[in-house]
Structure formats: C-alpha cells, structure tokens
Amino acid sequence: MKLLLLGSGGREHALAWKISQSPLVDKLFIAPGNAGTRLLGQNVNISATDFAALRQLVLSEGIDMVVVGPEAPLVAGIYDYFRGDDALCHIPVIGPSQAGAELEGSKDFAKGFMQRHAIPTAAYRTFTPETLAAGKDFLRTLQPPYVLKADGLCAGKGVLILPTLEEAERELEEMLGGMFGEASRRVVIEEYLSGIECSVFVLTDGSDYKILPVAKDYKRIGEGDTGLNTGGMGSVSPVPFADSVFMQKVEERIVRPTIAGLKAEGIDYRGFIFLGLIRVDRAYSCAEAGDPMVIEYNVRMGDPETESVMLRIGSDLVDLLQGVAEGNLGERRLVIDPRTAVSVMLVSGGYPGHYDKGFPITGLDTVEESIVFHAGTKVAVAEDGSEQVVTDGGRVIAVSSYGADRAEALAASFRSAQRIVFEKKYFRRDIGSDL
Ligand code: AMP
Ligand code: GLY
User: Fold this and answer.
1) Is it the case that residue 183 has pLDDT exceeding 90?
2) What whole-number distance in Å separates Cα of residue 14 and Cα of residue 234?
3) 217 CA from centroid of ligand 2 (Å)
4) Cα–Cα distance, 298 to 184 (Å, whole number)
5) Element counts in the chain: helices (H) and strands (E)
6) CB of 302 shorter than 6 A to ligand 2
7) Which atom of ligand 1 is nearest to the CA of 219?
8) Global pTM value
9) Over residues 20-38, mean pLDDT
10) pLDDT at 184
11) Is it the case that residue 244 has pLDDT exceeding 90?
C-alpha cells in the first residue's frame, strides 16, 4: 500500500523509520518531512494543515492510509475532513476526530472528561475574564506551588507553575487578559501534584487497544533538570518505576475508562493516545502514594519519546495501524523488544532562547552504533549543485540507541553524539540518570 505520513520532526522521522520497515508498504510519502525522512520515502512539500493540497496529493498518488504525526492537523479536523469528502471517506486517517482531539486542544475539555469518567487527575476549576475574581478566590484555597494552564494549544508554553500566590494572581490576570491570545481566554487552575512523570502511549481502534512501551522524556535544557523548558532533550524506555503493578493500575483506572468514555460520549477515536502520567509520591483525593494520575492527554505520539519507543516495537507497526483502520486491532499482535532504548537530542547552542541556523552537519554517515533521527535539519543546495545537511531548528538530531540496559544504550548514544559535528552543538549528558 501507499502511506502518507504528516509532520516534519524527529517523531516523524522515527515513525517513518518504523513504517518503512513494513513489507505492507510499497511507497511512503512524508508531508512535509525533513532531511532525514527523505532517505526513507518521498518528501512532499505540503504543510500538514493544508487539507486541500493534501487531498490533491492523496487522490493523485492513490494513497491508502494517512498517519498523522503532530496535533495541529488533528485539532484542525483532518479526520472529519476526510470522512466528509466523498472521494476521501474510504481512506483511513490514523488519528482522532476533531471532537477527540479536544483531549489535547482544550485543557478544560480534558479535565471535564476525566471528571465525568472518574479518571484520577488533579482537582481543578476553569476561569474566564468574567470570573477572574472567583479565580483569585480559588487560588487562595490551594497550597503553593500554583498550576495555571491556558485552555488552548500554546506549543508547550501554556502551563505556568508559580511559587507564590502573588505571582499566580498576576499571571492569571495576564493569561485571561490575552497573554497567549485566544488560547488563554480560559484558564484551568489545578492542584499541584508531586511525583515523577512518565509517558504512556496507547493505540486504539475505538474499542480495543494496545499499550506501547512506556517512556520518560527530559524537558529542561540543563543537566539535573534545570533551566528553561524545551521540546524535549532526550528519552528512555522502559521506565523502571512503571512496573507491572503500576501499569496494571494505569490500564484499569486510566486506559480502559478513557477508551470507554470516548465511546460513551460518541467520540470517534482511532489513533494514538498519549497519557502524560505522574506517579504521585503522596496521597491525593483520588490516589494513594505510588499510584498513577493523569497530568495531561495528547492525541499523538510524544517527541522525543517516539525516538525511543519505535525502537522497542518488535512487530510490524503498519499491521497494527491496519488493525486500527479496520477496527480489528484486538486480532493483531504487539511484540515489545526487551532491550532498552534511549534517545539523546542534539540541539543548537542558545536553544530554547535565540539560536542560529544553517550550520553544516558532518559525521552523520560515520554513526554505526546508533540510529540518527533528524528533527530540525534541511538540505542546502550549493551553487555547484552539491548538497549539504544543515541545522534548521533548535532541536536538530535525535541519537537513538539500543542497549542491554540503560547505561549501555546511553554510552552508545553519547559516543555517536560526539561523531556528529555542527557549530554550537549541545546535548544533556544526564539523560536517564535520575532513574
Ligand atoms: P502539560 O502541558 O499539561 O503537560 O504541563 C506541562 C508540564 O507541567 C507537565 O509535564 C508537568 O511537568 C507540569 N505539570 C502540569 N500539571 C501539573 C500538576 N497539576 N502538578 C504538577 N506538575 C504539573
Ligand atoms: N514529549 C512531550 C510531548 O511530546 O508533548
């Protein structure tokens, strides 16, 4: 079959790597893709949210399945766009309907959904500019630190954790005043949860589900989890604290009620669900110490978790995706590779603040013991026609490796990271060391 993958980051390169190994796929297109995905399929220069141009491509190339990497096209309703078009409605889109994408697109919707289905999550209330005073009253009932979340999508910047009441009140006022535009015209204020986080990925056809390997990502720029938040500096899988007792609770208290809740609410959801979980280290009203609670839902795979998780899927991912499309996922087999996988992100110096782009990247072909996934790269063509891969983003390359254990996998990624050279390269050398 012919498959179209949407997106352009490290996550999509990792998905393309896995998808392209499937004997079920004759041709893979990636829109728009990056300098790495072009080695695995055909990049097409169309934005993942340009539905009309994607429609043209799907029809002219005879594409049989669309796999959506990032959230933006899902929140914009690509699933419904295909379903509502006579020429496209038979082509499966792996990803939720627009209603399902609200689990990520609206924090208020996600919190309400969890409340309706008794899924353990932090206590919360939602406020608007009209209810600012009530919001400040609510803040006074909470203990510090204070968690404020813009309702809508903010490219990962919409969550503020504030140490004092004064700062929380001030930020609430600013958010409701339009600090993040429309996205923060509603703000969720919630109880702070203390514990350690992990990412659980579920693939569902709306009834059955498979729980993919659990991963942990590292969000801060600095070692020891310090400094500014980034799009992700590395990931590891498996996660030792997500043991079988913990995962059984995740499945019973979170995964099953989530899928049953979507079904009960009549929401079409055939795709990935990303559970941002926390193993709390003390008791809350709906959990004991050691139990899982939900911090957030996303409606896609995580980045850079995918760059580890794909290494640990031993079976054919496309066979699983076909199970999602055909509604018989329960009949398909998920094999998990017992090895450890890690991914270390090489970033541009200065990121997540100001950084420069366009630096030549060398040494990529000398990497032997890792898998290199491009995140922010592009191909620059010189006047003489020669091609050079150059940096084109803050996060540049994810270096993923297998190992018998975490230390072995990390050592391989760090050795490979040294072979890849570009100006002002930076990476964290402590990925996984907190586990
Ligand atoms: P989110 O965008 O909802 O994932 O939030 C971003 C990050 O903020 C999460 O990964 C957590 O580290 C942190 N966070 C969000 N909500 C809470 C909470 N209720 N308690 C503690 N930390 C939180
Ligand atoms: N790694 C977190 C995310 O993809 O949102």
Assistant:
1) no
2) 14
3) 8
4) 18
5) 13, 23
6) yes
7) 10
8) 0.97
9) 97
10) 84
11) yes
Omega before 32 within 30 of 0, i.e. cis: yes
Question: Which tokens sit at 112?
Answer: 């309400």
**What would the pLDDT profile of 86-113 be if each residue is shown by its tens digit?**
999 999 999 999 999 999 999 999 999 9
The amino acid that residue 260 corresponds to is: A
CA 400 to chain centre: 16
Q: What is the mean pLDDT of the chain?
A: 97
Distance CA 371, CA 416 (A): 9
Q: Whose CA is nearest to atom 8 of ligand 1?
A: 159
> Per-residue pLDDT averaged across 9-23, rounded?
98
User: Mean pLDDT throughout 310-324?
Assistant: 98
Amino acid in the structure at residue 372: V
Residues near 47 by beta carbon (within 8 Å), at least 6 away in sequence: 31, 32, 53
List, in sequence order, the alpha helices (H) in 39-195.
51-61, 72-75, 78-83, 98-105, 107-116, 132-140, 165-176
Nearest-CA residue for ligand 2 atom 2 is 302
The size of the chain, in residues, is 435
Nearest CA residue ID for atom 5, ligand 2: 302
Could you tell me which of 121, 147, 431 has the C-alpha nearest to residue 297? Answer: 121
Q: Which residues contact 187 (CB under 8 A, 6 or more apart)?
A: 126, 127, 128, 135, 148, 149, 150, 151, 172, 175, 176
In 3-state terms the chain splits into helix, strand, coil percentages (rounded to 5) of 30, 30, 40
Element (H, E) at 418: helix 406-419
Q: Are 9 and 17 in contact (CB under 8 A)?
A: no
157 has pLDDT over 90: no
Atom of ligand 2 nearest to the CA of 219: 1
